[in-house]
Amino acid sequence: MLKLTMTCGPYDRAQALIDKRVKPEGIDLDITVNPKNPGSLTEGPQGPYDAAEFYTGHYMADLATRSLGYTAIPIFVKRMFRHSYIYINNKSGIKSPADLNGRRVGLQTWFTSAAIWARGALEDDWGVDIRSITWVAQREVSIGGWKPPSWLKLEFVPKGQEQFDLLALGDIQGALTTRLWAPKNPPQYRLSFSQPWRGRARLLHSDGVFSHHAYPAHQNRAPGKGAVGRHEFVRRLDGIEAGPLR
Amino acid sequence: MSLFDAWMASKQALYDEMKWQRVHLTSLFYRGLREEEMALGGDDFYRWGFKACRAEVDKMLEYVHRYGMVPRKFEPEDMFHPSTLET
User: Which of A209, A220, A246 to mutate to test the interface with B (most CBs of B within 10 A)?
Assistant: First the structure.
């Protein structure tokens, strides 16, 4: 029997695998549960896991060079609507998504899956011109020798500073992030799209596209698992209807 | 494929458990929310598998190309293990 190692988060949909009620045929699967940010934990104590969650955006960006050494399987471990991970500073005068045009907007990395979906939705559905925005990334990532395209205005958060602080100060006026900044934080930094249920049906049926990430996996000994997409729900700018979704 | 099948079986086990969550879960609104969710997304709204998710993967590949992360638009078939393309 093939012995493989795998890591994933403590997802309810993985629980039958984790407690071995479900076993892959012909594989003795040793699972390590990582409760925090499992997408970044591809390295195990004995080296890389044979299968692991991984960031879809990074994986897709690596398709041209295949430098990561992963092969995906279409298991999307985590799926969610990323429209509800868009924050604004309410003092910035942003009343609708299109008001982000020409502003400074934060993101974790240019390749972050959630931010890829959010950018696509903002551009396709809410009239945001991605090229007009100065993007401020928390971290620099280079995949396969990637160079930013000439149209891209990409800056980085100064060392020692956090993106949330920049948003609070108004140095950036919006941010796309997987971090949970609302609703616990003060009201001046609330979620841009704050009506969780509205628009859900339209999203689901617009063109069959759900927000999701896919998590590929190591190919050391076996195809890894794919991954993601979680759903969350379309939110709207306070007092402003979300724009039409195709 | 064995690993893919195991993940699918694990998700199905969860769906089976969720039928009992209306009783087991400490929540006022769970059943109503669950029914609404299934009315919108179907019995298997948390879709996995190549064919079921191809449109979504293709859309994300379009964005990855549009936003300058790759030099050309890749196809969903380019990114998964060949044994899973019939799923």
Answer: A209
Residues facing A229 on adjacent strands: A79
ipTM beyond cut 0.85: yes
- Contact criterion met (CB < 8 Å) for B13 and A113: no
Same domain, A109 and A181: yes
- A242 occurs within a structural domain: no
> B6 to chain A nearest CA, in Å?
5
Written as one string, the DSSP assignment of A43-64 is: EETTEE-SEE---HHHHHHTTT
Beta bridge partners of A71: A217
Residues of A in contact with B2 (CB under 8 A): 24-27
A60/A93 same-domain check: no
Which chain B residues contact residue A1 at CB under 8 A? none
Type of residue found at A47:
G
Domain with residue A149: its CATH number is 3.40.190.10
Q: Model-level pTM?
A: 0.80
Q: What is the pLDDT of residues B26-81, one digit of tens each?
A: 988 888 888 887 887 788 888 899 998 898 899 899 999 999 999 999 999 999 99
